[in-house]
Description:
The complex is a heterodimer.
Chain A: H1 5-16, H2 18-24, H3 31-55, E1 63-67, E2 78-82, H4 83-102, H5 111-129, H6 133-151, H7 157-188, H8 193-203, H9 208-225, H10 233-240, H11 243-276, H12 278-301, H13 305-326, H14 329-360, H15 371-374, H16 376-390, H17 396-410, H18 414-440, H19 453-464, H20 478-493, H21 498-512
Antiparallel strand pairs in A: 1-2
Helix pairs in contact in A: 1-3, 1-5, 2-3, 2-5, 3-4, 3-5, 4-5, 4-11, 4-14, 4-20, 5-6, 6-7, 6-11, 7-9, 7-10, 8-11, 9-11, 10-11, 10-13, 11-13, 11-14, 12-13, 12-18, 13-14, 13-17, 13-18, 14-16, 14-17, 14-20, 16-18, 16-20, 17-18
Chain B: H1 2-10, H2 12-30, H3 34-56, H4 74-105, H5 110-117
Amino acid sequence: MSDILLPLLVTIPLTLAVFPLLFGLRFKNAGWPIALGGSLAVTAMASLLTAEIYTAETTDGQRFIHEMAGYPAPYGIELVGDGLSTLIALLIGVVSVAVLIYGRTTGPQSNAFYSGYLLLTGGLLGMALTGDLFNLFVFLEIVGLVTYALVASDDSGMAAYGALKYLFLGTVGASLYLIGVGYALVATGTLNMLDLQSTLAEIGYTDPLVQASFGFILIGLLLKIAVFPLHTWQPDAYTYAPDTVSAYISALVSTTAAYALIRISYDVFTVDFFAANPLITDAVVLVASISIVVGSLLAAMQTEIKRVFAYSSVAQFGMIVVAIGLNSQTALFGAVIHLVGHGLMKATLFMGAGVLSTAYGATTVSDYAGLAKRAPISAGAMAVTGLALVGIPPSVGILGKWYIALGAVESGSWSVAIVIFISTLLTLIYVARIIETLYFNAPTETSHEEATASESVDRVAISDSPVTDGGHTNQVAVERIAVVAILAVSTVVLFASVDLFATLLDPVFGRFF
Amino acid sequence: MTDLVSLLTTRHAYVLFVLLSTIGLYMLIANQNLVKKIIGLNMFQTGVFLFFVTSAYRVGGSAPILEGGPYVSPLPQVIVLTAIVVGISLTAVGLALTIRLYNEYGTLRADALREVIGDE
């Protein structure tokens, strides 16, 4: 019965995406309630599915398969819900509800925006649940297309520039992925993930066609995940996008791409492929390690808050990719926790930055001086989440990093453990700088010389807006601060969730390893 | 030498796939004009489509409609159809963004845009 939830999870947001535009013809504000309804439905169904898998006693009950339109497996397209994919689906649901509530009074308000929002949610869920390589490409492109449009939904020319850069690199990534899928199809004649698992094994993992197939898929997805040196689209896209969009895509888009890489690496190519091709795993670990260090360094060098967090994502995803290359169950367990944890943490940080920038026009680290006194809740939430990102216990940040480092040590890759340690120190540098400025620096008078043209434009815009409460501070809707605070608390509370993750993931990893 | 000749005579479609995609990719990276970048992107994708269509080909195959005889593989062709739709949507979004950039900054050159926006 529950397998019917799988197609519903994908089709409900995709179908609902039509309605904001349709009802928008008659009602001006139809978009937000429809999008919220869709996101709540997704969250409810994903929770139901997760609960069912969590309480299932047999291994059969921990894995749902739905054959689309009733065509059986190798010919039709399957949707697969197991512990791993429902976890990602649940994350997508929770973050999309949170971002919608946060964005009720801010960000783009047009009905077209909410249509795009629902399309993106549906595309992400499709990526999380599909069991077919080509279907994954289609959802990857749906997600890509909508993300480019949403990044550009800010009116500035810079947003269009960031979106176009993202479009060029994202399309190359998706096309490289498609070439990889083509090679796998030529080698085996099938696209179903489970079917490929056995047919690829028959062909042999050292076959050049199979190796090339994995290589293209890997590079294509690394581009989408934004691992150094393929990350150049990501800081621009995150910085120039409206605050709500930055929070949403930083939490979910790269995350589902990383999930897809985990799924393809371990479900399609399997650990035996990695064992047969040590060079490939070494290359993955090397690239990801460089990404961790360089991403952290670049983050520590930035002055703009959103750029700090954007480069920090490059480093954090490096950690997840390193865990994929380590070929260790413990590290992969850590990677999945970090995937979920990082999504929540980045959503919180970007939303917190959005609150402070609406309220005080603060967009750089130095603008944050003394803001903790004026905005105690938002500043506190950002400080807590920042420390979680560093990996101070108790937080979800330490869990992920701990298991990845533990897996590295277990498999004898001391260098990776050292790289993670160095990156933790570098993360501490940029987080501590933000916290120090927030709490201990005296507030600077806003009349400092370097008030640029854009800042004065901001001030004009603020004094025009109806919610000004005098001066140049701007009222922020209560629910925006509440969402940030709740998410910040969740990053701490999830520290106690190892058992939950273990129950959900053990059966999946049992098949992988 | 004979290897090269036999490669060109029997595997020319694959050679064309490699040429088209690398030329397209080079154009996307090296050309500074945004519209030409989009054309390069299209060429790159067309190369990939050619690879799929070629992989479906078989000597003497007919369209896969049930009437006997060997058929060409229908699956890659369906894939290419879908991928063409995706490619057209991408081109449309890309051109729309290019028009917005042109209206805003009055240029189509990527290097000029980088200078105006101050992108490192």
